[in-house]
Amino acid sequence: MIKNAAALADAFRANGMPVFLVRVTPSPDGKDALHPITDAAPWTQTPAPDWAEIVPEMGPKLDDFVITKHQWGAFYGTELDLEFRRRGSRRWCSVGIATNIGVESTARFAYEYGYHQILCGGRDGGDVG
Q1: Is the pLDDT assigned to residue 127 strictly greater than 70?
Q2: Which residues are registered as beta bridge partners of 117?
Q3: Residue 123 contacts residue 115 (beta carbons within 8 Å)
Q4: Longest dimension (CA), the chain
Q5: 4-40 per-position pLDDT tens digit
Q6: What burial class does residue 69 get, using C-beta atoms within 10 Å of its C-beta: 0-12 exposed, 13-18 middle, 19+ buried?
Q7: Could you tell me if 115 and 84 are in contact, meaning their C-beta atoms sit under 8 angstroms apart?
Q8: pLDDT above 50: residue 112
Q9: Which residues are 82's β-sheet partners?
Q10: Which is nearest to 2 in space by CA: 51, 43, 58, 61?
Q11: What pairs with residue 24 in β-bridges?
């Protein structure tokens, strides 16, 4: 998946199109993480130290944008929508690794914001990021 996503990003770069790389990490104090009261116990696994690192095959390259999200979706509380609008872009192609949480949240926000989306399959069949 990384090889294909990197090739797609390189094709965008070669054609003068912006590349946005999204990573997720909470603030050091964890206060920007979700803490809702639910019937199910929250996921408590501690992420690896390199959790928020972008794999070298993806970049970032010189003109790429790195977006750090703190919630499930890449639009909520980030500059992603602003940067797209500044460039007059209404279309985007998304690739990622987790479909039913962050990817789906991001895709739903993008739809609500009026973006035209192309979702490229990943490891589990329909990932974006």
Answers
A1: no
A2: 92
A3: no
A4: 49
A5: 889 999 999 999 999 999 998 888 888 887 777 888 7
A6: buried
A7: yes
A8: yes
A9: none
A10: 58
A11: 69
